[in-house]
Amino acid sequence: MFPDSGIQVTMDVKTKRRADVDHDEGEDLVLATLVANGDDISPLVRHAFEMGRPQGLLRQLDFVVKKKEAEIEAMCKTHYEEFILAVDELRGVLVDAEELKSELQSDNFKLQQVGSAILVKLEELFESYTVKKNVTEAIKMSKNCMKVLELCVKCNNHISEGEFYPALKTVDLLERCYINNIPAKSLKRVIEKRIPSIKSHVEKKVCSQVNEWMVQIRSSCKLIGQAAITRTASKRRRDKEMLERKRKSDGLNVSGVDDQTYNLVVEEDEDVAMKFDLTPLYRACHIHSCLGILKQFHEYYYKNRLLQLNSDLEISSMQPFIDSYQTFLAQIAGYFIVEDRVLRTGGGLLEPEQVETMWETALAKITPMLEVQFAHMKSTTHLLLVKDYVTLLVTTLTQYGYDVGQLLEVIDNSRDKFHRLLVVECRKQTIEVLGNDTYEQMVIKKETDYENNVLSFNLQTSDIMPAFPYVAPFSSMVPDACRIVTYFIKGSVDFLSYGLRSNFFNDVRNYLDKFLIEILNESLLDTINSGGISVSQAMQLAANITVLERACDFFLQHAAHLCCLRSAYKPQATLTAKILLKTSRDAAYMSLLSLVNAKLDEYMNLVESVNWTTEEEKITGNEYINEVIFYLDSLMSTAQQILPLDAMYKVGTSALEHISNTIVGAFLSDNVKRFNANAVMNINNDLKMLETFADDRFYSSDLAEIYAGGDFKSCMIEARQLINLLSSSQPENFMNPVIREKNYYALDYKSVGSICDKFKDSADGIFGSLSNKNTKQTAKRKSMDMLKKRLKDFN
């Protein structure tokens, strides 16, 4: 379609051209002729222009040109038809191109007209795009600034609310992500300037909070320490109760089967005071870690807590130590419990070496202070109270790993001081007990009194409960003394327990032995040697010492019991005091015997009370003998009730031996110048009454089974043999060795010689009155004279 249209347009152009040529053909012909002839056409051209009609010339020239072209075309057509056609077509294309160009120019002009407005709009659009870009950038920068400002506001709010860690996180976020991208330099400078101030403010605030916490925890340390020590004391009490129950179960378990009692021990909830809060400290550590000055905070905490410790270690001189020691020691305990928690949970806030330094600092002040306070104490109660609380402190802090050896050494070094005070206290009580004792047998009316005064100290002689009222063989001094001894044992055990030595039984035994020897035994000896006691008191005192001697085994067993030794423990060695008490008992017996002898001497002043030259024989004996026998009966009855059989036997034998010696001594006395047979017979009657009494008392007291070969009567053998000799019809037989060894072995030659020299009878005496027996009496006198002569020669 497009080629056919092009050919049609070409043909229309050609037809138009031909019409124009035909129209101007006449005028053009002349010009053509001129041109064809080669004539000069310049005059024609000049004439046309001069005439002002160049258009006609131009047309003519165009006509000529066209004619020539036609001719050329015809010629070409003839020779180059196809070429001409191509050229024509090309010219047509050229024309079309020119037209197209003209159209394009027209369209371009129109386009330029239309596009200029569009270009203006485009420029406006580009400008809008630039503005938009700038606005977008500005918005972005504004949002960044807004975000920064929001973070600043948020940081301020955190700081105002005391939320320092979020504040520091906000500051860190500003530093890491925003501060380098802040477009506003002034804002950036302000923030950069304020960040160090904020950090410094946070540090000061946190340190202020830590300081407040330190003040608060210092005031709480006393409660913390008291709670911990109370818990330790409760555990110690439970352990004692459990041990006591185990002892009882062991004592009841006689079947051989190991029956154990199991008890569920429910741990008490942790005391509220022990739940102290370390959150401010943890927070401060974390915040200082965020600030990059954690080490500085560690040093700050250590320094300030050390200052607090030194302040806590100062005690006021205005208040007695006994009134403040619990508060002081509880404060120290609470302090180191807190530091142990900080060491374990503080994440390196404290080093073990630092806690060790704190503890050494405390020991350096507590140890000498306790030594001084112990040295100045005058009361066992005060010393024991402080010691108990110190041991509770020691046990409590041992659970937290602290080395408490120095504190235990202080207590151990004070044990002699405590026992000196305890001895002084118990000596005073012992002297009061001995001074207030009535030395009368104790009458127990109730079973509870029997348990408190007899069974409690294992003083019973039988496991059978006696009938009441029960008359004990000892006076009230014995249970009172036992109470003093057990009080001493308990005080000693209480002080030595939970100390440096785990096995302190030997120490308790040594202190007990020393107390029994130096206090109880010496007090008893002082009483014995005082000379202010009577026979009955001496007898009761001897009986009391016998019971106390037997109680020594109980004292030792009681000490072992309190020292937490097993209930079946049997001491390997007895107390030395037991031996010394035996010696004191013997001294009491000697004192008793001495007093008995002195009393007998009062009754048996034979030199004055006996008529040595009497003219008549008294069948009932001398007057003094009834008093002597009555006294001996009372003495032996009392001895039988109070004293053991061996002691009773000793009293009886001693008294009768003294009577015998008194009788012999009377005959030997320088105040007795002479005596006669009647005096001898009266003394013989006295002696028979004594022998009868001795046999009755000996056999009625069940002594015959024990002392079969030594009855009471044998104690007067010297007096009996002397009376027998003086009453004998042949006294000279004394010089016969066989007869003397059989009948007079208790008599010595010298004494017999002195006594026989005093034996003199007058003619008008007893022998003179019996005139029918003169021969017999004469023979006896001769025999006596012979004895005197032979004794004189022998001596």
Chain-wise SSE layout:
Blueprint: H1 2-23, H2 25-37, H3 42-50, H4 54-160, H5 164-178, H6 185-252, H7 279-291, H8 294-312, H9 321-345, H10 352-376, H11 380-398, H12 405-413, H13 415-436, E1 443-444, H14 447-453, E2 470-471, H15 477-496, H16 505-529, H17 535-562, H18 576-603, H19 606-609, H20 624-642, H21 645-668, H22 677-700, H23 717-727, H24 737-743, H25 749-758, H26 766-769, H27 774-794
Antiparallel strand pairs: 1-2
Helix pairs in contact: 1-4, 2-4, 3-4, 4-5, 5-7, 6-7, 6-9, 6-11, 7-8, 8-10, 9-10, 9-11, 10-12, 13-15, 13-16, 15-16, 15-17, 16-17, 16-18, 17-18, 17-20, 18-21, 20-21, 20-22, 21-22, 21-23, 22-23, 25-27
InterPro entries: EXOC6/Sec15, EXOC6/Sec15_C, EXOC6/Sec15_C_dom1, EXOC6_Sec15_N, EXOC6PINT-1/Sec15/Tip20_C_dom2
Domain Exocyst complex subunit EXOC6/Sec15 C-terminal: 406-758
Protein name: Exocyst complex component
Characterise this structure.
The protein has 795 residues and is mostly helical. It has helices spanning 2-23, 25-37, 42-50, 54-160, 164-178, 185-252, 279-291, 294-312, 321-345, 352-376, 380-398, 405-413, 415-436, 447-453, 477-496, 505-529, 535-562, 576-603, 606-609, 624-642, 645-668, 677-700, 717-727, 737-743, 749-758, 766-769, 774-794; strands at residues 443-444, 470-471. The chain has a two-stranded antiparallel ribbon. The radius of gyration is 72 Å and the shape is rod-shaped.
